[in-house]
Automatic annotation (TrEMBL):
UniProt key word Cell membrane: no
Pfam family, one: Hydrolase_3
Protein name: Hydrolase Cof
CDD domains: HAD_Pase
Length: 292
């Protein structure tokens, strides 16, 4: 890994000169939440709050994109005074922060829902189904149910079987397991089986998100930039997981957190500190410093 850097950032390949130059021209910042903007304990640090405040003061637009449901992002959006639409469900929904209205939605096709639920069941991976802001589950004792409850801020709805849910209105399916290698294999299998119908990408080592083929953070960033009338080359994005790569690929500059896997870091323009070492704030402060 190339350690040469500037402003606390470095590049994996090359000296990153073009990426550092791009920082100076950013007009819109879109950040992932968990593992990026937030510390591991789900808190928003004072450094992150200050960085976003300074972005606003500099006239740089800011919003967030997450695999969370919209309701699970409200505390973040309100704390940081986000005033433009934000993307939930990996871009499956665009939400107005003032009215909480869903401005655009991409629901999973019914056949992709069936394929996904069958594959997760066959692998012995707990499945969750999200419709609107409602989180449905069949196993209340699942290993990550308490974590998800803390993350989104509300309880899931226990059902006997997912056939009791409106499977024509699904926004996201999540597979959750502590067996990270198993989940990686299921991710690869579903990427092949769902090609052209849906996306399957891990948002954490223990979460596999399945969403509509257009419900990805790359498409979300594209739409957010269009609504703000900002060219994609003047957009900066920050993230840490494989579901963030889609936005890395289209933004003018992308910043990966220091704890991201080598594969994710190699897809980013620049690499920051870890999320718990305020890698988000380091990235934003670098951007502001580059603007002069």
């Amino acid at each position: 890994m190339n350690a040469k850097g500037q402003y606390g950032l470095h590049s994996v390949d090359g000296d990153g000169a073009a990426a550092f130059e791009a920082l100076a021209h950013v007009e819109l910042v879109v950040s992932d939440c968990d593992g990026t903007l937030l510390h591991t304990d789900k808190s928003i640090s004072d450094a992150a709050k200050d960085a976003v405040r300074r972005l606003h003061e500099a006239g740089v637009a800011f919003t967030v994109a997450s695999s969370r449901p919209g309701a699970g992002m409200r505390h973040i959006v309100e704390t940081l005074a986000v005033d433009m639409p934000y993307a939930s469900y990996n871009g499956g929904n665009l939400v107005d922060p003032r009215t909480r209205e869903v401005l655009a939605a991409h629901k999973l096709p019914r056949d992709a829902v069936q394929t996904s639920l069958e594959a997760l069941a066959a692998a012995g991976v707990d499945a969750w189904v999200f419709v609107g802001d409602v989180w449905y589950l069949t196993n209340a004792e699942g290993a990550y149910v308490p974590r998800e409850r803390r993350t989104v801020g509300y309880d899931g709805v226990l059902v006997q079987r997912f056939d009791d849910v409106d499977l024509d209105a699904v926004d996201k399916i999540v597979g959750s397991t502590a067996d990270a290698p198993l989940l990686e294999r299921v991710e690869q299998q579903l990427q092949t089986r769902l090609e052209g119908r849906a996306n399957a990408a891990r948002s954490q080592s223990y979460y596999l998100d399945i969403t509509h083929v257009l419900a990805n953070k790359g498409e979300a960033v594209r739409e957010l930039a269009r609504r703000k009338n900002v060219p994609l080359e003047r957009v900066a994005v920050l993230g840490d997981m494989s579901n963030d790569i889609a936005m890395f690929e289209i933004a003018g500059v992308s910043i990966a957190m220091g704890q991201a896997s080598e594969g994710v870091q190699r897809r980013a323009s620049l690499v920051s500190a870890t999320n718990d070492a305020d890698g988000f704030a380091v990235g934003i402060n670098a951007l502001l410093s580059a603007r002069g």
